[in-house]
Amino acid sequence: MSSEQGPRAAGMRATDTASIPLLSVRNLDLCYGDARALEGVSLDVGEGQLVAIVGANGAGKTSLVRAIAGIAKPRGGRVLYRGQDITGLDSYLTCNLGIGQVAEGRQIFPALTVEENLEVGAMLPRARGRTRSSLHEVYGMFPVLAERRGQLAGTLSGGEQQMLAIGRCLMGRPECILFDEPSLGLAPTIVQEVFRWIRRLNDAGITIVLIEQNVAASLRLAPRAYVLENGRIVMEGTGEALLADDRVRKAYLGL
After folding, report:
1. What is the span of the domain harbouring residue 85?
2. Contact call for residues 43 and 24 (beta carbons, < 8 A)
3. pTM of the prediction?
4. CATH number of the domain that 148 lies in?
């Protein structure tokens, strides 16, 4: 699911965008008071790619998502989207450019119904006027949500709430989705299903940035990946190559 007209940097010809990544992070620094969460982080995500950013709990993964999404304001460095500097842009403006987010812990509205939660996702200017068609697409992908459209979201199972969180994001017609720990707190069989949903969205043309501490599953899924440790990118490469790397296997897979 994608917007029919993607954003372009002011004054940039459409042909110029072919040579630049969809999303770039350049030398990003982020601090919470005196505590440094990110230091000199740089990465690129090409349009249509599925890129994983993996690391242990506390490595700075969620801080990176927050900085890209405009929730946290970096101390230094830049975030570029289609070549346009969006560093520190308010999160609702970032979303309206086409960067969606499926947050850690799902963060649905438990006292609203399933359909009301989805309609909240369609409130972005880029999505207005397309609520009905977007609902049709989301219900087509997640039929259980259609069956429970009138049910309070807080009464759904963990897996169903994750479906709802993804569906709500899709209602905003994103071109790029940031998934922050989508497997957290879910049963192993549901985790496998979540990763299948992510693959399906990427196959449909949506650019995916997958932030995960489930290193093995993420590296199997993502053609390209980065390893984040203590707020720094320490390794990058294909998912297959990183999965076979002795340092990754010892540090994250216990092999």
Report:
1. 44-252
2. yes
3. 0.88
4. 3.40.50.300
